Sequence to fold (169 residues):
Amino acid sequence: MEADTIETERLVLTPLRVSDAEQMAEVLADPRLHLFIGGRPATLDELRARYAAMTAGSSSPDEVWRNWVVRGRADRLPVGTVQATLHRRDERWSAEIAWVVGLPYQGKGYAAEAARALVAWLADRDIHEVVAHIHPDHAASGRVARRAGLHPTADLVDGEVVWRTPEQG
Fold:
């Protein structure tokens, strides 16, 4: 399940590379991005180290990490990231997804467009279920999840609402 380039009408999702850290450090620098997830923006060195670990992948054969930089199709400048952590159980795969879009690019539908493209990419690979964990007060992420085809459940994980696609097959 290689992380192919994914294209949408306005975006290109390119597989994450360590060299993306420099541009992404600027996109992700606003502390307000951490309002619902906690923590603080990573420094450039921290982001390089994180991206190196992410691109190296999981040590478990039953877990696969796929990460993309979300770029504007016209200018190829980064606006955010999407990721999928794939889990295999009993020869079936499911995915936990997440997204982040830099503050200057929010409110333009980029997160929803990228998340929809990611969910479609996963469906094309017979992923039977897609899940996202969203803070209950993060209405914008809830709208993104809904536009990507996920639905809220009554389940909570670490205080976040579990959203999921209807299970396939």
In short: The mean pLDDT is 95.
